[in-house]
Amino acid sequence: EKFAAIVPVCGGIRSVKITWHDLTVPAVSLARDPYADVAQKIVCPVWTFHGIEDDTIPVSEERLMVGALKSAGRSVKATEYERMSHHIWDKTYSSPELWKWLFAERKP
User: For residue 94, what are the contacts with CB-CB under 8 A and spacing of at least 6?
Assistant: First the structure.
């Protein structure tokens, strides 16, 4: 209810150990099917962005979440950048299409 839309960049919901910082990011959901669990809680439109060669958060995380959002009947778009790894935010946030889409969204 707080957001009109969300834009996950290199998102993931399972526990991930980021080795270069010796940091473990906890899982978002511990449900049997964490993707379906999270998808049920997201009610606003989503546009995800991920680098296909991401070695920090695997692109499979984004793909599984997009599938769960679609199965839940949510509005979702997905962009995957070929030959890009984890550092995609500059490319993502410099996209005029992203901002046009984002600012066109309204809370119900």
Answer: none
Look up residue 98 and give its two tokens. 């992203």
Give the ranges where the chain is alpha helix by DSSP (H): 34-41, 59-71, 89-93, 96-104
Q: Which residue has the tokens 């978002």?
A: 28
User: Taking the model in full, what pTM does it have?
Assistant: 0.88
pLDDT (tens digit, 9 = 90+) per residue, 34-63? 999 999 999 999 999 999 999 989 999 999
Number of H helices, E strands in the chain: 4, 4
Residue count of the chain, please give it. 108
Say how many Å lie between the first and final Cα of the chain, rounded. Answer: 9
